């Protein structure tokens, strides 16, 4: 079954050679190696595919690897009855057609020798070098006799760690799984289902993240056929019943060529038939399919600027569907993918999806990291042939998701937890980039919250996180981040602070979930205490201030400080006469002043007398945490202020609002008091009231 062409009768498959007859190659392999001056026939097809991408490649190393693989596997057969050497040959041919370099092909020929024959890693290292040895070791399975039921998850852990040093390890594994899936029909149905589920949950997401679309699409079709046979058969019948579906695409392709030719743009226009899973998804989305739904048009050009030139011509000469436009050239996907996506309607109303990219972009879109060759170079000062496991490698293409995966897997020694977390991590198939306050960046899965950002930036120190500023605005830790957001995470100074169980509801990344779960398990008493829920204190009895040090120029007037804004020296103030010969004094910015003026009330001049006691109402905004109320009242007492009354509102989204009416021995001490309250961990703002204070 083809991964690329769902309808081979209507459109040609991917350009290139037809699939090789592996049974014939197996028979050739049994005849032994050819003469010294030529490659064996069994590997000649691999050499041909390799030279198509690397004309100057040295084939001697491939010859040598084939001879060792063939002699080592001689006498072994696959369950299908084919000589076993056909499997490493097929895996190597898959990689060669995708453009893998010679070292990868050498390792793929040998990838099962250490696992299934008497060949040792020391022998591979001695004959082929440290790089080939590292790749072979990376894909070698762990023995069930040693690991039992944990063998499969621990094997994947081993491969992923090896991939962290060299992504070519996973390239070989993906090609290995593709050939095994192609030949899975000889297995028992229950084993087919088990292997297909692991392929769906782990290998296909890895192929997507590494950008190897050519392998991913065929794996999707093979898994689809095994796990959803009825839907697969319906899709196959749908494609078979639409043998003329490509006519509309053919007509539009010719129109595209004419338009681009007239615009003097050198471009190649190809028809890209959809694979089975893609057709199935489109049919679920749109219901009845049109002819143009069975494929897409691909326009290949030489330079990046030509991509936008093509886009302009197509949008000028055809009717664009603006909602379908996406620019993955200016903003590449996290798996290296670059292309312009659009859709246009032809004269007959048929809508075709269009992909526009350069030839190099297309190579990377198909083969992903395989198309990059060997991006690894020894770190300065490291010998050229140094063991990859011993010395670091400078890897400019190492994706952020892989770094995150390698970090959190170290915290999960339990194989079952690792296996579950791995599947959950790989199920998140989009990534966003957010900016840190220090100018750095964090790569996070789409849907990640401030909780995830905290653990990605600070690790276990994020246990003390009490809030965040997102794009300059205060935000709760549950806030979901968007691509391009700037996140400033706020940490408590109290080292004993810890996460709330509620954080697990907002954590998307395994690293965050594992760290939170581990802390909660180690601090059961902390998990039981409700986070951000200080107790409401009993208010102290209200007392009138002994002295009001505000003076007005009205004889026999009684002066009262307004409770809505509680002015104190040296606030700019004004007064208004009310009933009973009382003058109420407000801060000038108090809303009550504007309200009195709107009622045509004449203001009264007020000045401050000698400094003395003052009453003030302050509001403290904070993120909830244990002991917050105790710390705030201690800070107030340290400044010599007396609490007249206090109100603590119920927490909302981990934020708590405290309102205190305080008696100060000296009004000049107010700024110092407010600073002391702001310095309490968890408090992010302290302000004077601008509305009537609530007293108990």
Molecular structure report:
- The model is unreliable at 1-39, 377-397, 528-547 and 692-696 (pLDDT under 50).
- The termini are far apart.
- Helix 11 runs antiparallel to helix 12 (189-209).
- The chain contains 26 helices and 23 strands.
- By secondary structure, it is of the alpha+beta class.
- It is elongated.
- The relative contact order is 0.06.
- A hairpin with a 3-residue loop joins strand 16 and strand 17.
- The chain is 41% helix and 17% strand.
- The strands form 6 sheets. Strands 1, 2, 3, 4, 5 and 6 form a 6-stranded mixed sheet that branches.
Q: Runs with pLDDT <50, length 5+?
A: 1-39, 377-397, 528-547, 692-696
Number of strand segments: 23
First-to-last CA distance? 77 Å
Shape: elongated
What is the strand content? 15-25%
Question: What's the tally of helices?
Answer: 26
| Rg over CA atoms | 35 Å
Query: What is the residue-averaged pLDDT?
Result: 80
Find the structural class using helix and strand composition: alpha+beta
Helix content: 40-55%
**Main sheet record:** 6 strands, mixed
Relevant terms:
696 residues; alpha+beta; 5-stranded mixed sheet; 6-stranded mixed sheet
